[in-house]
Amino acid sequence: MSALVEFADVAFGYPRSERPGERGFQLESVSFAVEAGEVFGVIGPNSAGKTTLLRLLTRVLTPARGEVRLDGRPIRQLAHAELARQVAVVPQDAPRPFPFSVEQLVLMGRYPHGPGRFFESREDVVLARAAMAATGVLDLAALPLEQLAGGERQRAMLARALAQQPRLLVLDEPTSHLDLRYQAETAALLRRVNVERGMTVLLVSHDLDLAAEVCDRLLLLGGGRVARVGPPADVLRPETLEDVFGCAVVVDVSPVSGRPVVRVAWPSGASLQPGR
Amino acid sequence: MSGGRRLALALGVLGFVLLAVAAAALFVGSAGLSPGAVARALAGRAGPESVEAIVTLQLRLPRVLAAMLAGGALAVAGVAFQGLTRNPLAEPSILGVSSGAAFGVVLAQIFGLGLSALEALGVATFAFAGALLAAAAVYVIAAVPGGLSIQTLLLGGVIVGVFFTSAITVLISIVDFNRLGGVVHWLLGNLAPIPAGSLALFALLALTGSWLVLRHARELNLLALGEEAAVQLGVDAERLKRRIFLAAALLTGTVVAFTGPIGFVGLVVPHALRGLLGQDNRLLVPTALVAGGIFLLAADTLARNVVAPAELSVGVITSFCGAPFFVYLLRTRSRISL
Amino acid sequence: MTRRLALLAVLIVPLTAGPAETLSVRDMLGRDVTLPRPAARIVSLVPSVTEIVFALGAEERLVGRTDFCDHPPAVRAKPSVGGMVNPNLETLVALKPDLVIATDEGNLEETVRQLRRLRIPTYLVHANRIAETVDLIARVGELTGRQAAVAKLTGEMLRRVAAVRRAVAPFPRPRVLYVLWPEPLIVPGRSSILTELIEVAGGTSITAGDGDAYPRFSLEAAVARAPEVIILADHSTGSSTAGRPMPEQWQRLASVPAIRAGRLHSADLSVLHRYGPRVPDGLETLARIIHPAAFR
């Protein structure tokens, strides 16, 4: 198996003036690879740089140092449309306001495959409908996106990404607004997409359980650097996690899947003091 | 029904309505010509110096064409601005461009270009210069490192518009009483018969601007996903924003240069169309071109005839009728998303 | 000899015959206008010119006027083409005029351009002085073929003007403020006929050197120039009270000589804003206000 995505010694910093109130943030010397066909998770504390990493991958941002490569080619050499044919992103939130229907949304995913076309082709429509069927939103196709419930909306956004027929599917916090049932559904969906279509999946999440269950390998980011890369059992160790997250944790093993389950070691009343 | 088919159907229906309204406009007017006389003039069978030929071919026909072009251009500019700013309340005048153009013309009128042959071109040129100045100002205000900020664009447009409007007010307050009537009259927006050469130029500019928007109608849809998401789909968002802004400014500036500021068309027509056709800009842009023409033509025909032999300015009708119509549209909001 | 005469005739006859009776004149803005001699279907876009046409007895040649042409009352019988600023071109064209008379002060350049494009002969006028008014009357006479009536009309006018001049000559000239409109304060300026009329009537307009025709003026500056006579123009017409001057507001200005001396007058002087045959009427009224002693 070859690396589909490579980050080679990437560094990035938001200029201080652009993000008032935030300390100028740095990604330093980030190097890792994502193998084709795997489900890869990026985890870490809130300001660790997960979203920045994602933006660097989709060329919304350009690294200050180092290189991001897709299939061995530096992505800055690729045209935006070409990159879009390979990489599809499911953002955290649905766009607002969004006055289009679900079907119109999903059809937008076909743009990279025919940017010169004015109207989508019949084949585009067929592929879009197949994507909607895959995520179970086909019967909602004619409804405005804004009328859908949170979970349905997420699935519609996923359908749009699938319609893009990418080699790499990127998801930013796919379960952050979802209740338990939809979290489970999303996890199952991602697994199915990965197995049935052979699609490489990269997800960014602060939900460690989801990451542990679904991902083949994890990247733990801390303070702008790679803390650890590897299978969940390797990465999700109490010492490592306490180091990066700065609080005590307990790691169990799930009786169902054998994967690590991370829990916060809730402090007792006596030690609940600021600064600890 | 596929997108292409829906568009063809919509254009067919609207085109038919446009022809009907244009025909009605040609047959109605203060000169009291009989339908037979008008028909004769149109067929070229009336004497070239006859009243029906002069009224029909030199007064009404150019005016009908100007109304179609101006209305279409304003409606397309409205669709473009609303797509660009993702704000359905964005109107061409909100970008300050029409105020800039109006300022240019008021300046020209006050300094009295006199009745030289140059001034026929002069007024429109001043309007263009004013429009370009305003557009450039808005652009400069909204340009942040990395590109064009849409939020700042809206704010900048409002500010630039307010600035030029107050500049106009200053000019009006010091202008000689004698010239005041002319300035106020121009500011209300009027469709006067334009000579063939200017009309051809007007058409060229309006159609060029509309074409620029139409080319990018699909990308404009994608902009609704958010700029970042659009870029991730392969859209060159910065180039798109620049081009749409320029096209919309061109359309607005052109209309103001030839007819004076006419409001509401760019707001009412796109909204009415969205209620019928949905939000897809690929359908909205071409239909706006036709529907805008219908709207302004109807308004102008009304303006010309409702208090004959006096004439109302078409800008008065569009605002007067446009405002309650827009309230009605807002109240039936189910198809409109804000 | 006969052959030479015949040759001469062949040359001269075409020159004298010419195209059917056209007149090539230069209008008051220096442009050449070609029109049939004399014009038989005139549309006047200038109320002053309309008055002159009637005064010269040429009204049967007038086929159109504006809404503002209100004198003499008989003019109401003539069709109107709308306002001065936005005349209805269709109505105008339907009247089949062979001459349109317009002014650069009150009509739009755009209107004149449109008329030129429609190839309707358009004659532009402009009169800011008594002398120019007299010239205007002569020109209208030429355009309507009523030259014979001009001398009598203008002679009478000039006689009355001279009489006023003589009557007020012995008296000192008071400073006069003429208020065309109180709020915003609008006064006659350099190029208004009113300025000259005030001068002829034996006064000096305190705004004689200001602005263009009817500039805005600040009340402060007016007060600072200490007018000795204030005349408020009354724009009200018959039943409507709109435009009636309000002397109470001016009474407050106790420092102004005119107020102290009780020389605050209002008068219907709308006729003085025209440059036509009624100028002497207004002039006499103006002179009576400024120098009542001269006319006892």
Give a topology summary.
The complex is a heterotrimer of chains A (276), B (338) and C (296).
Chain A: E1 3-13, E2 26-35, E3 39-43, H1 50-57, E4 65-70, E5 73-74, H2 80-86, E6 87-90, H3 102-108, H4 122-134, H5 150-163, E7 168-172, H6 180-197, E8 200-204, H7 208-214, E9 217-222, E10 225-230, H8 232-235, H9 238-245, E11 249-253, E12 260-264
Parallel strand pairs in A: 3-8, 3-9, 6-7, 7-8
Antiparallel strand pairs in A: 1-2, 1-4, 4-5, 9-10, 11-12
Chain B: H1 3-27, H2 35-43, H3 51-85, H4 97-110, H5 119-142, E1 143-144, E2 147-148, H6 150-174, H7 177-187, H8 196-215, H9 217-222, H10 227-232, H11 237-259, H12 265-277, H13 281-305, H14 314-331
Antiparallel strand pairs in B: 1-2
Chain C: H1 2-17, E1 22-26, E2 32-36, E3 42-44, H2 47-55, E4 62-64, H3 89-94, E5 99-103, H4 109-117, E6 122-125, H5 130-144, H6 147-168, E7 175-179, H7 193-200, E8 204-205, H8 219-224, E9 229-233, H9 247-251, H10 257-260, E10 264-267, H11 279-290
Parallel strand pairs in C: 3-4, 3-5, 5-6, 7-8, 7-9, 9-10
Antiparallel strand pairs in C: 1-2
What does this protein look like?
The complex is a heterotrimer of chains A (276), B (338) and C (296). With 276 residues, chain A is of the alpha/beta class. In chain A, 31% of the residues lie in helices and 25% in strands. Chain A is built from 9 helices and 12 strands. In chain A, strand 7 (168-172), helix 6 and strand 8 (200-204) form a beta-alpha-beta unit. Chain B is built from 14 helices and 2 strands, in the order H-H-H-H-H-E-E-H-H-H-H-H-H-H-H-H. Chain B has helices at residues 3-27, 35-43, 51-85, 97-110, 119-142, 150-174, 177-187, 196-215, 217-222, 227-232, 237-259, 265-277, 281-305, 314-331, and strands at 143-144, 147-148. By secondary structure, chain B is mainly α. Helices cover 75% and strands 1% of the residues of chain B. Mean pLDDT of chain B is 86; it is low at 114-118 and 334-338. Chain B has a two-stranded antiparallel sheet with strand order 1-2. Chain C contains 11 helices and 10 strands. Chain C is of the alpha/beta class and 296 residues long. At the A-B interface, helix 2 and strand 6 of A face helix 9 and helix 10 of B.
Q: Spell out the helices and strands of chain A N to C.
A: EEEHEEHEHHHEHEHEEHHEE
Rg of chain A, Å, rounded: 19 Å
Query: What portion of the residues of chain B fall into strands of 2 or more residues?
Result: under 5%
Total count of helical runs of at least 4 residues of chain A: 9
Radius of gyration of chain B: 20 Å
Low-confidence segments of chain A, ≥5 residues, pLDDT <50?
A: none
Q: Ends of chain B: how far apart?
A: 27 Å
Q: How would you sum up the major sheet of chain B?
A: 2 strands, antiparallel
Helix coverage percent of residues of chain B?
A: over 70%
Low-confidence runs of chain B: 114-118, 334-338
The two chains with the largest interface, and their residue counts, are: B-C, 34 and 41 residues
Shape of chain A: globular
Report helical residue fraction of chain A: 25-40%
The number of helical runs of chain B is 14
Mean pLDDT of chain B: 86
**Distance N to C terminus of chain A:** 45 Å
